[in-house]
Amino acid sequence: MTSFDTKYDMYPAGDVGVVEGEMNIPTRGVPSGDSMEFNTLDEPIKETFLRDLRAVGNKFYHVLIPREKSSLLKEWDLWGPLLLCTLMATILQGTEVADNTNDGGPEFAEVFVLVWIGAAVVTLNSKLLGGNISFFQSVCVLGYCMFPVALSLVVCRVILFTTQTTFLFFLRLVISMIGFIWATFAATKFLGDSQPEGKKALAVYPICLFYFILSWLVVSHSNV
Amino acid sequence: MANVNTGELLDFQDYSPEHNNRSARIDVEAVHTNQYNNTMSNPNYTFDEPKTIEEPEAAPQTNHNFWTIEYYQKYFDVHTNEVVERIISSVLPQKVSRNYFDERIKGKPDLYGPIWISVTLIFTIAVSGNIASYLHNANKKGFVWRYDFHLVSIAATAITCYVWIVPLALWAALKWTSTTDGHDEIENQDAKSPTMMSLFCLYGYSLSIYIPVAVLWTIQVFWLQWLFVLMAAFVSGAVLIFWLMPALRKSRYFLILIGSILAFHFLLAAGFMLYFFHQPNTTDDTIVSTVKP
User: Given A2, A28, A129, B31, which residue has the most CB atoms within 10 angstroms?
Assistant: First the structure.
């Protein structure tokens, strides 16, 4: 050890940083900012479950109020996107009506494929443009940012229980537009900085398109 | 403790004590950049160090593996203003310089524009096709209109086929019907038949005019819809021919090629309009059958 120390002293402190790196494995599921040391082997399942759930809920909160960027990017997970995607697919799926004509809505699997392939293609696009973000980080952000769209879908679904009028249609249109703008704004806030200058619009446009298509599904969904 | 260990593992420990650490590190970097650059001409690379570092940024290497993302990055190496300029060039060629295609697009074809213009067109057609169908049926008594998500798959099939197959066919036609009138070497160099990628690029951008037209097609006036078909097909087809003229001239079937380019463009536009936006009045009995009891 002493021999190492003498050698270590020879290097100026600033230069060691060039080869030095973080080598600890990021622990998944910890609420951000909480650096407790834990051992998950002998804790109750309920605790493990609640901790993961809290992490997911925390990310949803950060999507609704997109102020700090690091919260979603630091530890990606796909639980939130899976929940949102399943919720949307369940509500949006077309139902067989009595006279054997489909109501024209997408199938459950079609919504699923649209969301996941869409997120993957948008991510691939930003990778190809030269963005410095990892694949799953970007898919995670795109998935979590569906939250406003999913919220607007739930609100629209509630509106659909009443008798439909033209005014209510425009109300649904406005609500889904708000969801679209909110989602795009949040995703742009999280992902915008990963692109080089002059290519930002090229990366943001597919994100807009992605949420626009989802919002179109939301506003088109009706149970009549 | 962990910090000390990594430091011990990753430090370059074999340098002699009297050697200045900073210069040692630059040496290592120089070896690396030299390896990537393949600069065989200057063995004493230590002096023009900044130059060799900046060179890879200016001209990225293109010898990446086919299956890596880096291989495709060269087709997405465009900036926002370039994409806007290319879209303009596909509609209004007089706004850009006369040999824009030869100078810019041929040398650096991109796939960003074609891919996202196609995707936008697919969903624009699906959305406005639904609006058109609603406008057509809205004032019918007792008819309950429902949206049809599956227009997306039909539009996607049509556009994807068009955007891949037609440039491929055109490329093959240009390649195998070109006559090499080799009397002037320099002219030959200039009007070399365009690469497959640049044709994909050109065709993708030429679809951009259909996006606003698809929105306008929702107006349910029959002669106006046909007017838009003719206008869009003619403008976009004429621009295609305008850019491809030097290559087309060398083909033996000059007129046939021009005719088929225009015909396919017209067929695409007419097919879109008739299938997605126009509902003939003869289908009233089928509509009645879908009315809810």
Answer: A129
Residues from chain B that touch A2, judged by Cβ atoms under 8 A, are none
What's residue B18's pLDDT?
Answer: 47
Q: Would B70 be classed as within a structural domain? A: no
Quick check: B11 and A11 CB within 8 A? yes
Quote the domain boundaries for residue B252. 82-289
Please give the C-alpha separations between residue A109 and each of A85, A123, A156, in angstroms, as whole numbers.
10, 21, 21
B149–A103 CB contact, under 8 Å: no
What ipTM does the predicted assembly reach? Answer: 0.76
Residues in chain B where the model's pLDDT stays below 70: 1-62, 103, 180-192, 280-293
Mark yes or no for CB contact B80/A201 under 8 Å: yes
Secondary structure of residue A96 in the 3-state scheme: strand
Final residue of a structural domain among B20, B44, B59: B59
- The reply to whether B163 and B45 lie within a common domain is no
pTM above 0.90, yes or no: no
**In-domain check, residue B188:** yes
Q: Considering only CA atoms, which of B73, B115, B101, B119 is closest in space to residue B202? A: B101
Chain B residue nearest residue A24, CA to CA: B2
Give, in order, the Cα–Cα distances in Å from B293 to each of B138, B196, B288, B289: 18, 55, 10, 9
Overall average pLDDT of the A188-211 stretch: 88
Instruction: Report the gap between the CA of A41 and the closest CA in chain B (Å).
Output: 24
In this structure, what token pair is assigned to residue B169?
Answer: 């066919």
Together in a domain, B279 and B154:
yes
Residue B71 lies in a domain: no
What is the structure's pLDDT at A42? 78
Mean pLDDT score across all residues of chain A: 81
Which residues 20-39 in chain B show a CB within 8 A of chain A? 21-22, 25
The predicted pLDDT at position A95 comes to 67
Q: Are residues B53 and B157 in the same domain?
A: no
Would you call B16 helix, strand, or coil by DSSP?
Answer: coil
Nearest residue, CB atoms, B123 vs list A16, A23, A213: A213
